[in-house]
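## retry 2 of 3
previous attempt timed out at serialization; input unchanged, resubmitting
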Amino acid sequence: MSEYDVVIIGGGAAGLSAALTLGRARRTVLVVDGGAPRNAPAAHMYGFLSRDGESPAELLELGRAEVKSYGGEITTAVVAGIEREDKRFRVTLEGDRSVWGRRLLVATGLRDVLPEIPGLRERWARDVLHCPYCHGYEVRDQRLGVLGGGPMTAHYTQLIRQWSADVVLFAPAGSVPPADAAGYAARGIEVVEGAVTRTVVADDRLVGLEVDGRVVPVDAVFAAPRFEPNDALLRDLGCEVDADGWVVTDATGQTTVPGVWVAGNVANPRAQVIVAAGEGVAAAAMLNADLVAEEVADAVAA
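## retry succeeded, writing output
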């Protein structure tokens, strides 16, 4: 059975950045990648300095090569379970293969749960979008729809207005407070109340949303999904979660379970790719420091 200084679960920007840092620190590292990155539907990523407009797949390919160049190992597998034994963690992969890690970094990301509107999921990351900082510039000055209904609808809609003067809010009937309606009117935001029943597509492009039987034209739609962290492994290990259901960490990503760190969207829903990468680096530095402290204590005891 193989043993590593650190086993990293999740091979996205956070996990690979951590592996790169640890490899350069001469640590033995295994990255276990489930092979289903959150941003796989996106053709491009934006806002990553020096990588603006690059495809997420290309970033991961380059990252894997860099990790391997420092001796890091990467395997495509699904983690079936984790058990803590003394100071080590036994990570069982599907197929009954197991590896040991002195420390763990979990960077398994999150799931985007979209409104149940027929056709919406198929357009995700194409012309149905979430983050205006990631994709707003690419649809600037077009007719932009916003799917509302949540507590942050007014803030989100007014934010989208920064990228276009032609914005239409789709809101459930009777859900728009008068103060919000005044703000929309003041900035020229159209409000369409009613139930959105389907997306309308022509020539592989979104052209509108159907509301109570009529089609309202739009060129792109911003939808704020519900975020669900992929944190089952962390919960099984006993990591504490906060009142909102997110794993509790310190500033470096250390959880309440000794030896377990997190990075990226599994604990931070607002982490864009570049932020997730930075969190991976920060967690790696503290993981290495924790290992050094253990090695010093062992040496003194010996």
